[in-house]
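I'd like us to work through together how a protein chain folds, taking it slowly. To get us started, please write out a protein record for me. Label the sequence line and the structure token line clearly, so we can match residues to local backbone shapes. Once you have written the record down, we can walk along the chain together.
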Amino acid sequence: MPISGQRVLIFSKPFLFARGLSRLIEESGLIVVGLESRTDDALAHIQRLQPDIIILDDTVLSPLLLTSLLDCAPTVRVIRLGLEGNLIRVYDKHQLNASHAQDLVNILSVPQEPSGSQRKETKTARSSEGEHNESFR
């Protein structure tokens, strides 16, 4: 899908950061459908606004929220921005139907790219500016 016209929902507590991010995104041809500082009703916002992309910063993200987002909106790309360290993480959900035990073994045997991080995330080079994006699998 082309980037222009995609709908973006931003969750961020620092207001100035959120506004600056919103402006940058809109200048890129994306449509910002919401700026939220709280994630209490995150799933309701997602269902109502139907974003293609969700951007969260470290101030609002919790493991439970991330899991909930990936479960309730499997086609939505979730992007996490680290306010310190200029780190961008991209979380994609992959769902596969398994009909035999061997299907799990096949998934486990797919080699992952080496990562310089202690986390179980795979680094991918998607940024043209040298930042590292990580894709959780």
